[in-house]
Amino acid sequence: MMKGVVWLFASLFLMMISSISFSAVKNTLIDFNVYDSNISMVAEKDRVIHSNMVQQGKAVDLSQYGYPEVEFTGDDWTINKWKITLASSANTVRNDVLSYPLKVPSKKFGDVLGVRIHFIEGRFLSWATISPPFDFYPYFDDGSDVNVNANHEENSLVMGILMNVGQIKSVSSWIYGLNYQMQVGVRIRDRNDQIQDFFMGSVFYDGWRKLVWTNPEYTESVQNRVLQRIALYPRSYPYIAFDSFVVYKPEQELGGDFIIYFKDVDIEYDRAIIREELDINDEAAWGILAAERLKKRVQDLRTIGEKIYLYRQEMKRQKAATEQNIPKTAPTTSTNK
Fold first, then answer.
1. What is the residue range of 213's domain?
2. Domains identified in the chain, total number
3. pTM of the entire structure?
4. Residues 138, 147 contacting (CB under 8 angstroms)
5. Residue of higher predicted confidence among 234 and 104
6. Which helix (H) or strand (E) holds 31?
7. Residue-wise pLDDT tens digits, 31-75
8. Closest by alpha carbon to 165, among 186, 138, 184?
9. 121: in domain
10. Is residue 45 part of a domain?
11. Residue 96 forms part of a structural domain
12. Concatenated DSSP letters of 181-208
């Protein structure tokens, strides 16, 4: 009798578990309609936090290591400053010059990312990536998350970073096609700097379409999931960052100029950690993550700062060369015969 009761309770428990499903969260990773304004907000907050750290004597002085000190501005990250990287076989000066991004107005979505790619001409396989001028950084100088607001609401700002991301259920993107047989992918970088490509499909159509990659291994049924414990503090909360779009040129396309437009990238995912259930604020007590995150931030400053420094130096050289070619005084002409 007791055995039958136990079996009944076990059956009811399994039925209850099987009826429960995870509710995946859907957030926008990047949206070019608001990208320029949002990234300017991040750059300004970064400037304020860095200034406060300097005043408190907590900022790392990169100059003592020989690295240039730079101040990021929103202008360093704008859509028009994104970069196109061609496959090595197509990476010529001419193709590079003819491949560039542009902020383009759309009647349907507002501002979008427009891209001109000049592929290698001929029936060759090729590819190109479309990426921001620098990698998106997840942490400020004080170790705080870039995409968490003052009310501790994660992912409240659309700017290329999503925090606390576990298993990904789907990736979607509004992409404008012009009847070319090119294929498109979305490339995402995780907290360990590992890259994962999500193949979105062909753009052999005209107009806007929402292309979707769906994880074939994802299941919402708890009973069918591989359940495991996730190490929490002081492990860093997982995050993902937008890395680039990838455009693949098949053999049947002749190459040359190719135009494409992107509106956004949405991610549907499981939260890795339910922060609301944590009784103790571990980071406030120990500060381990802040030290690790500041170390990562310094690493980003070294690489990003070096690129910005070289870019600005080149701009100064070009400006100086232009000024040298301008006559000091405008030539005068006489009307007297």
1. 21-319
2. 1
3. 0.82
4. yes
5. 104
6. strand 25-31
7. 999 999 999 999 999 888 878 877 887 776 666 767 766 777 888
8. 138
9. yes
10. yes
11. yes
12. --EEEEEEEETT--EEEEEEEE--SEEE
